[in-house]
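Q: Second attempt. The first request was missing the SMILES, so the protein and glutathione are both included now.
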Amino acid sequence: MHTPKHAINGSEAPRPTGSGSANPTRAYPDSVPVLWQLQVSHYVEKVRWALDYKRIPHIRDSLLPGLHAVKTRRLSGDTSTAPVLTLEGRSIGGSTRIIAAIEERWPQPPLYPEDEALRRRALELEEFFDEELGPHIRRAFYHEVLPRPELVVPLFTQGRHRAPRALLRAGFPVLRVAMRRRFEISAESAADSRAKMVAAMDRLEREISSSGYLVGDSFTVGDLTAAALFYGVARPPEFPYPMVAVNDLPDSWREFLDLLAQRPGGQWVAQMYRRHRGPSAELTTGDINKAPHPDAANGQRTGHHEPVPNSQTAFSNLTHPPDRLPVSTTAAGEHDPA
Ligand SMILES: N[C@@H](CCC(=O)N[C@@H](CS)C(=O)NCC(=O)O)C(=O)O
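A: Got both inputs this time. The predicted holo structure:
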């Protein structure tokens, strides 16, 4: 892990603030957290899940892959990657630091175990999957789909107007070269990354305890990270955005994913999504002025898990992009915060 560490709640935990600039954007009020995202990104999914799990009303601003780096660097000051979270006027880059900041600001329901040894283990597992799975599943996936612009361009531009779609289509050959270079994608490296995915699945299966969780007997950041970063294997219906249709995936990749999905670890990922992914707490831009103050998220003031209406039920006129899956219907009623 390359992120700096400092003490939170008495333990070694990732530093919750980046070197982000104050007031990076005037487009949104400081009172509502803004997640700058790439819809498809598994690191973004990790943070989206944390925000939804804690029922923190927030805005999602989807960036155009390729151009996103300019925005995320300008916001965070220190990273060109997504996710970035703008929180009370400061922008934080890196999913681990973002979750640390969320956990500090909205401790309930907790993603960090209270017990110090368990907390260290959960953070160690977060780091393992971040470093040993995240880059590899991405490299192996893009190796398969980058030759197919008809799959990737719609994936990168869903919910967008014609102009950005046309821009991405026109720029795709350049973007593809840049992605291959940036993610060091080649036939050899992709094969190696498949092996790393299998090794990460082996580790996941070794770590699942008799409680059904990786650490202790409740859902922690360790479970969340492993499940979010493996979403592309389990393809859970609770994932909030469309994916490449399974029948469009290249045969060898689909068969490889199937083998992993059928393993106990793959089924565990699907189960974590079913039990804990829950409904979305996203606000749309039309709703932000009506948004409850983020302190209304569970437990901020009381330290208890007191159900409050999430954004989708509080704002029944929410408008989602037409391609957005009805998250509230896929997972409503099954959300089972630890
Ligand atoms: N360690 C970072 C990794 C984030 C990351 O690699 N994000 C990808 C999307 S999956 C990205 O923005 N890549 C663009 C780039 O590397 O230029 C985190 O945990 O947030």
